[in-house]
Amino acid sequence: MITRQSTLILIVLLGLLQGCATALVGGVAAGTAVVTDRRSMDTMVDDEGFELNALKAMFQDKTLYNTSHVNVTSYNQIVLLSGEAPSNDLRQRAERLIRGLGTIRKLHNQITIAAPSAMSSRASDTLITAHIKTAMLISSSLSPVSASRVKVITENGTVFLMGILNATESDAAVEIARNVGGVQRVVPVFDEPGAL
Question: From CA 55, how far away is CA 53, in angstroms rounded?
Fold first, then answer.
């Protein structure tokens, strides 16, 4: 008779044998994030759906899509717009478009008036985000569980932190992010537990 433990070991070994170790580790990390997330499953699904609808809407607005670089992040129905638009009119146009998509508790329009960032800048931002997440995971001032509750978005060296954290956790997350190389500014966009 095959036990649960044997089945789990077999699944892990098959994943490793097929060269899917990265996917397996990523799946475990994602599963951990879902388990520790303070949002309800419905809210997580709504946030993901909102982001997909925003991506589709941005793509359909050819003027915005072709002239701007706008990211839409939703966390607990708090929406962050980040990136660059060449004019205030396009910045406001992006906000109006996103506001029309569904339920939003708060919207933070952090789109800067500038030409879209270069790919090298975006690559640097990705590296900064990875360094912040790593620093949060290994920090003694923020538990790994709390670190998994922080969504990090970086645009041109400006770091936006989202999640549902208490005051102690949010202070620790901000301090960790401030001390990572390449960070120009940290903007906390946290929600408190029980806010929804």
Answer: 5
Please state the domain extents for the chain. Answer: 41-113, 119-191
Contacts with 52 (C-beta within 8 Å, 6 or more apart), sequence order: none
Contact 122, 154 (CB under 8 A): no
Rounded Cα gap, residues 162 and 188, in angstroms: 7
pLDDT category of residue 25 using cuts at 50, 70 and 90: very low
CATH number for the region 41-113 comes to 3.30.1340
Q: Which residues are paired to 162 by β-bridges?
A: 151, 189
Q: What is the pLDDT of residue 196?
A: 62
Average pLDDT, the chain: 85
Which architecture does CATH list for 119-191?
2-Layer Sandwich (3.30)
Provide long-range contacts, Cβ within 8 A and 24+ apart, for 26-35: 32/148, 33/148, 33/149
Identify residue 159 by its one-letter amino acid code. V
Higher pLDDT, 34 or 11: 34
